[in-house]
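Service request form, structural biology core

Requester: graduate student, group of Dr. S.
Request type: structure prediction, single chain
Budget code: on file
Notes: please return the result as structure tokens.

Sequence provided:
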Amino acid sequence: SRGLGDVYKRQSQGTGHSRDPYIMKAQDGAEYKYYMVATDANTTNNYNNTGLHTWGSNDLITWDELANPQFATDKGGGSKTITNMCWAPEAIWDPVAGKYMVYFATNEADSAANESAKIYYSYTADFRTFTEKKVLFDPGYGVIDADITPYGNGYVMLYKKEASSGTGAKKVWYTFKTCLLYTSPSPRDTR
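Core staff response, request fulfilled:
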């Protein structure tokens, strides 16, 4: 176990650095009371981040390093034109699946993040092992920085439209869904 400052400075897995942290309260009965996910940050090349870091804590002070899952394809090098990304992870409990849904922005095309990023997800019960990633949200243009929150009888997802031009480019948008699996954009999407 290490203090939060040490966690953020020295990981034993992946690149050894992190950014975009997200902390959530765990479900009752979990191994830890809190979980944290963050981007595995390549500090020598900001465009070559292929995985995440996960930690668990019972007091929000000391943290145990749990895993370094790799979700993005390393296409070699990384640059503003070909991005290897797995950015801004967050997590939410999915009561239907009975697991935590970890979601993040990544891309599989050989293009810049703002042209092809989608929101993907993976399920985990313990923040150590993860299912294969799947597309969670693909509105037909690049999106990053999703945040999903329970709202009424469903969920609202905020996200940043990363398209380089057009209506609402580089703005925050939102969509409503009745379940966590955002497989298609809603006609109610708005900014």
